[in-house]
Design brief:
The complex is a heterodimer of chains A (296) and B (104).
Chain A lengths: L8 H8 L6 E3 L24 E8 L2 E8 L10 H17 L3 E5 L9 H20 L4 E5 L8 H8 L2 E5 L9 H8 L9 H8 L1 H6 L5 E3 L3 H11 L8 H18 L5 H8 L12 H8 L11
Parallel strand pairs in A: 3-4, 4-5, 5-6, 6-7
Antiparallel strand pairs in A: 1-2, 2-3
Helix pairs in contact in A: 2-3, 3-4
Chain B lengths: L1 E8 L10 E5 L6 E7 L5 E8 L5 H14 L5 E7 L4 H16 L3
Parallel strand pairs in B: 4-5
Antiparallel strand pairs in B: 1-4, 2-3, 3-5
The chains are: A alpha/beta (296), B alpha+beta (104).
Chain lengths: 296, 104
């Protein structure tokens, strides 16, 4: 059983797609590198930290993008973003689903303006694709988690899959601590970080649709199952999502600690949640978790 | 960024049929190695971009050792370095050559 958390972007694509079915677009041999990093005397990577291409999953064609969380924290720069934007456009044209293998801290600060614009373009492409019924599925379980603009992109997806190791949020723990102090949020308190942003909590409050153990095979099976979920985004879906978020806010808005939320959900042993293995956690939470139904 | 290039002659031709291989990642203490089978079989050309300046002689020693130990004839090797130690460089080069020898 290979760990998704430990795997590289290329290994994840290899493990996810049918054997020998992956064909990369704008691969490292094209040397489509960041035009900004040399200004800071920083080393580039030939694929700019994202691998994009087409593949088959369970015999069906789709598009795949995988971020490399070890290169600059998987951060989105101009080229990195443009590769994902282009992939989403091609997917919409062909009517193929898209898998985004998130592993990112957000926008790359050295090319922040280009990166922020890329995030906006990607979000627009996802909304356009989904308005035509194209599924865009996010997989979260890498070492850099899914933060900043990555969290915004994930929020636009038609389905999300997460492991316990996965973390999903917009403002990351270090950023909160830098701006508001360690009293507000101690980013070195790993238990706290995972209680707030980690896969189990995100699954319990209905921010994601599938919770899987940290293995390539579990992510593959969940991706196959997520492909059958409804993907269309329209006014009715948005209205339902808004209503559900309002309900979530009224149920949990006054609570300041994840364990209190788990308690309010009706979990009998909230303190035991962090230590449960994947299957036991799923069994424990099946009856009480908030269902996602598109809301993040 | 320091750019280094090395040109080697070798009578050991790289095995396999794959046109290209990539291994590693540009991160602290790590590097990425892109290998392309584009040269005449007796040549190996290696290009390096590194943020750690002044280590030309160390690179030359590691690469000479690599050429002596592995079959790298016909390969163009491009490296983006994040300050990797010599042992990591040697490991990635060996992994890259092994990868290009595999069936495509």
């Amino acid at each position: 059983m290979s760990s998704w958390y430990e795997a590289s972007a290329r290994q994840r694509i290899e493990a996810l797609s049918d054997p020998a079915s992956f064909e990369e677009f704008i691969g490292p041999q094209d040397r489509e590198i960041s035009p900004h990093l040399s200004l800071f005397d920083l080393p580039v990577q030939f694929d700019d930290g994202i691998v994009v291409g087409r593949a088959k999953l369970a015999g069906k064609p789709l598009m795949i993008a995988a971020q490399e969380g070890r290169f600059m924290g998987g951060a989105v720069g101009e080229v990195h973003g443009a590769k994902l934007t282009g992939l989403l456009r091609a997917a919409r044209k062909l009517g193929w689903p898209v898998l985004i293998l998130f592993d990112t801290g957000g926008v790359r600060l050295q090319e922040a303006n280009a990166g922020e614009m890329a995030i906006a373009e990607i979000m627009r492409e996802i909304v356009l694709a989904r308005s035509e019924g194209v599924a865009v599925i996010g997989l979260i379980g890498g070492r850099s988690g899914c933060f900043g603009g990555g969290g915004l992109i994930a929020g636009c997806c038609s389905a999300l899959i997460i492991s316990e190791q996965g973390r999903l949020s917009v403002t990351g723990p270090e950023v909160i601590e830098t701006n508001r102090g360690a009293e507000e949020f101690d980013s070195k308190d790993r238990a706290l970080v995972w209680r707030v942003t980690g896969g189990k909590h995100r699954y319990l409050i209905g921010a994601v649709d599938h919770f899987v153990e940290d293995s390539n095979d579990a992510f593959r099976q969940a991706a196959i199952s997520a492909l059958s979920r409804p993907a269309r985004l329209d006014a009715d879906v948005l209205a339902a999502e808004q209503k559900r978020l309002e309900t979530r806010l009224s149920r949990f808005g006054a609570l300041t600690e994840a364990r209190d939320i788990w308690s309010a959900l009706g979990l009998s042993r909230p303190e035991a949640i962090p230590s449960l293995a994947a299957q036991a956690f799923l069994a424990e939470s099946a009856a009480t978790r908030e269902t996602a139904d598109d809301a993040r | 960024m320091e750019k280094l290039t090395f040109q080697f002659e070798t009578n050991r031709i790289a095995g396999g049929e794959r046109k290209q291989a990539i291994i590693g990642v540009v991160a602290s203490g790590n590097l990425e190695v892109l290998i392309e089978r584009t040269l005449p079989p007796s040549q190996c050309h290696i290009e390096i971009a590194t943020a750690a300046h002044g280590f030309g002689p160390v690179w030359e020693a590691v690469l000479s050792d690599f050429i002596a130990r592995r079959a790298a004839g016909g390969l163009k090797i491009s490296i983006n370095d994040g300050g990797a130690r010599p042992d990591t460089v040697a490991l990635r080069l060996a992994q890259g050559v092994r990868m290009i020898e595999e069936d495509s």
